[in-house]
Amino acid sequence: MLVLAVLTGTATSASAAPTTALQAVEISGAGGVALKANWIAPAAAGQHPAIVFPSSWGLNDVEYIAQAKILAGRGFVVVSYTPRGWWLSGGTIDTAGPQDMADLSKVLDWTIANTPTDPARIGAAGISYGAGISLLGSGTDKRIRAVAALSGWSDLVYSLYSGSTRHRQSSGLLQLAAQLVGKPSPELSTALADFNANKNVGQVQAWAKARSAATYLDAINANQPAVLLANGWGDSFFPPNQLTDFFGKLTTPKRLELRPGDHAIAELTGVLGLPNDAWQSLYEWFDHYLGGQPNGAETEPAVQVKPLNASAEGYASWSALSGTARRYGLGKIRLLDGTGLLGGATSTGWTKKLPADKDTLASGGVVLLTNGAAAITGEQPSVWLPFVDRTRAGVWAADRPSSAQHIRGVPKVHLELTGAAATGTVVAYLYDLDTLGTAKLITHAPVSWLDAPGTTSVDVDLFATAYDLPAGHSLTLVVDTVDPLYYDENAAGGSVTVTGGSYVDVPLQ
Questions:
Q1: E strand map for 381-472
Q2: In sequence order, which ranges of 266-364 are alpha helices (DSSP H)?
Q3: Given a cut of 90, is residue 23 above it in pLDDT?
Q4: Of 200, 250, 202, 207, which Cα lies nearest the Cα of 225?
Q5: What is the rounded distance in angstroms from the CA atom of residue 26 to the CA atom of residue 280?
Q6: What is the dihedral of CA 201, 203, 205, 209, to 10 degrees?
Q7: How far, in Å, CA of 322 to CA of 434, rounded?
Q8: Count of CB atoms situated within 10 Å of the CB of 363
Q9: Helices (H) then strands (E): counts for the chain
Q10: Residues 6+ apart with CB under 8 A from 337
Q11: What does DSSP assign to residue 58?
Q12: What is the pLDDT at residue 455?
């Protein structure tokens, strides 16, 4: 099956055909803004399918040179460009806004007029920012017949505020890159300043919504491009939950691929021109939907995943992947080891008080680095559970099963609370605990409540995952109130108490 060949990196590429030389050009974007670009094409006469690559946030059109040469050798005209506001392109950063959409259409105009492009066979693709622009563009320009969005987003509001919690490290890196190698627009600067200050939230979210493909879902469905979405399970910029919701509502030819790793890590070696399964999947997608090759791309499972610690799998839909929820009640904390039982019916009559401004070793890691390293080593980030301070965290561990448990989908945590301030944050972590105390992170997520006096419960969807809990290992939940990945909304010196009636729903196949 193609799904297994692509996700395990065993698929082979087509023999390279002769190409033209790579040429640097300048394309006039919307309003005459100069966009730096390059292009390359097959040397053979006649018209060819074309792919347009907007560069990633903080990078420029040089990013895709290695892949442009490979794709040209496969029969595609390839045009890569630096979006406005970045490096030597003119204008200011529009953050995939209306000016970027107009620029993309201008690049398509130029491509048709100046290269041997078949105007009926044009695709758009990219990593991160380029993915977002490409996916959004498929709703604004009907000429885009296929999209490959690698490590992109569909919902920028969720990316910034999932669980009503501001994502601190990822937004900070985006801001730093814009300041170093870009020209931030006043709109972007205001949005980031308000985001960091936690003010004018409605305006920031409206700005983000206007830059979200989910907002233009109807237009994308009407245009019917073939859409490939590929992200990492541990993407700390664009967590996978937003893509699964969006994917389910797409009525176009579509595929969703999820792999281990953080943002843009799965595609990194391919950018250097090395063999790479994410790029191999892109080749197959465009070979079929633009090149017309009968490679079976349209008949493969629509959802193709590489679990965090298992072999590649294919499913007809996201709902087919998602397991049946098993409820694990949180039990009373034992005095001997400071750990409660995770499992069985929900119980009452117990409490666990957490300081509202104290961190623990339980952590989602460091943006890009932690989950990026895990993708390379094949080992999930871990902590030694005895070192998780029980005075700062609640810990609940399940009985050890006699057979492996296959977790697939979105685990959900429900916490009953008492004594919570009107504003606060908790972070939930789901771990795989072995017999020696090493706990590997399966997934996590934060949740905040804002200006809500009398808060008595919170619900948080953890980030989607696919993980096989080995036989003899304990599924373990840790709850604390601070994680450096996120801004927390806790007041110094405060506390929140988790009470009986709390539980975790874990999707098991």
A1: 382-384, 394-397, 405-409, 412-418, 424-433, 438-449, 457-461, 465-469
A2: 268-271, 277-289, 318-321
A3: yes
A4: 250
A5: 29
A6: 180
A7: 25
A8: 21
A9: 14, 23
A10: none
A11: T
A12: 87
What is the percent of the chain with per-residue pLDDT over 90, rounded to a whole number? 94
Q: What are phi and psi of 153, to 5 degrees?
A: -125, 155
Separation of alpha carbons 498 and 504, rounded Å:
13
Q: How far apart are CA 388 and CA 361, in angstroms?
A: 5
Tell whether the model's pLDDT for residue 8 goes beyond 80.
no
pLDDT at 9 over 50: no
Cβ(107)–Cβ(134) below 8 Å: no
**Is 475 within 8 Å of 385 (Cβ atoms)?**
no
Map residue 306 onto helix, strand or coil.
coil
User: Which positions ≥6 away from 124 have C-beta within 8 Å?
Assistant: 51, 52, 53, 54, 104, 133, 134, 137, 138, 144, 146, 147
Bridge partners, residue 233, by sequence: none
pTM for the model:
0.95
Going by pLDDT thresholds of 50, 70 and 90, the confidence category of residue 257 is: very high
Residue with tokens 């623990």: 360
Nearest to 271 by CA among 43, 496, 67, 491: 67
* Contact yes or no for 344/331 (Cβ under 8 A): yes
Sign of CA dihedral 164, 168, 169, 171: positive
Q: Tell me what pLDDT residue 323 has.
A: 86
Q: What six digits make up the tokens of 96? A: 């995939």
C-alpha to C-alpha distance for 463 and 72, rounded to whole angstroms: 37
Read off the pLDDT of residues 197-213 as tens digits, 9 standing for 90 and up: 999 999 999 999 999 99
Q: How many CB atoms lie within 10 A of CB 44?
A: 12
pLDDT bracket for residue 496 (50, 70, 90): very high
Coil/strand/helix, residue 496: strand
Within 10 angstroms of residue 74's Cβ, the number of other Cβ atoms is 22
Radius of gyration of the chain (CA): 24
| Residues in Cβ contact with 382 at an 8 Å cutoff, skipping those fewer than 6 apart | 438, 439, 440, 441
**Rounded to 5 degrees, what angle do the CA atoms 378, 380, 381 make?**
130
Mean pLDDT, the chain, rounded, equals: 95
- Distance of alpha carbon 52 from alpha carbon 66, whole angstroms: 14
Ramachandran angles phi, psi of 400, nearest 5° = -85, 120
Helix, strand, coil percentages, rounded to 5, for the chain: 30, 30, 40
